[in-house]
Design goal:
It is found in: Chromosome, Centromere, Kinetochore; Cytoplasm, Cytoskeleton, Spindle; Nucleus. Helices cover 91% and strands 0% of the residues. The protein is mainly alpha-helical.
Length: 178
């Protein structure tokens, strides 16, 4: 019986050694299991959505943004029109000022001519008798006054013509906007 028990003991010892080797192998394989779980776990970087959901989101975004864009476009076009009108006004004002300057320059040259004519007239009057001198002086003064009045009226007409042109430009601009 001892022989049969010894073979059982030997068989049990070999089974224990095999089991011990299995445990060691299993332990080395399972020892790294938490790290492997973390490495092998998948993280979703992008979420996939169905196409109808994506279209709905795009449409809602479009519905939300469209009124704001339309409002901003209206504001910008109004501002551009305002700046264009201001530019036209400044151009007309510039034309008016240039007209005034040129009429002043012409007025100065015509005034110098009228002064030369009046001084020549005075020279002629001085050569005549004293009685005709007072008549000639009054005529010269009247002539000078009339020349100045003519220059003022010419300037006023030029100014009114420039203003009329400016109003016509503004009217055409407002008709073009409508």
């Amino acid at each position: 019986m001892a022989a049969s028990l010894s073979s059982s003991v030997t068989s049990l010892q070999s089974s224990l050694n095999l089991l011990d080797n299995s445990i060691t192998t299993l332990d080395s394989g399972v020892n790294d299991f938490p790290r492997l779980c973390k490495v092998l776990s998948t993280t979703r970087h992008f979420e996939l959505l169905p196409e109808p959901t994506l279209r709905e989101a795009q449409q809602s975004l479009l519905d939300e943004i469209t009124p704001s864009i339309a409002h901003l476009l209206t504001l910008s076009s109004n501002h551009v029109e305002k700046l264009a009108r201001r530019e036209q006004g400044l151009k007309a004002r510039c034309d008016l000022q240039e007209g005034r300057l040129s009429s002043n320059a012409e007025g100065r040259s015509s005034a110098s001519r009228s002064q030369a004519q009046s001084s020549a007239l005075r020279g002629r009057v001085a050569g005549s008798s004293a009685g005709s001198s007072s008549t000639a002086a009054s005529k010269a003064a009247e002539y000078k006054r009339l020349v100045q009045k003519k220059e003022r009226l010419k300037f006023a007409v030029d100014r009114l013509e420039l203003q009329s042109q400016q109003k016509q430009r503004q009217l055409r601009k407002s008709m073009a906007v409508q």
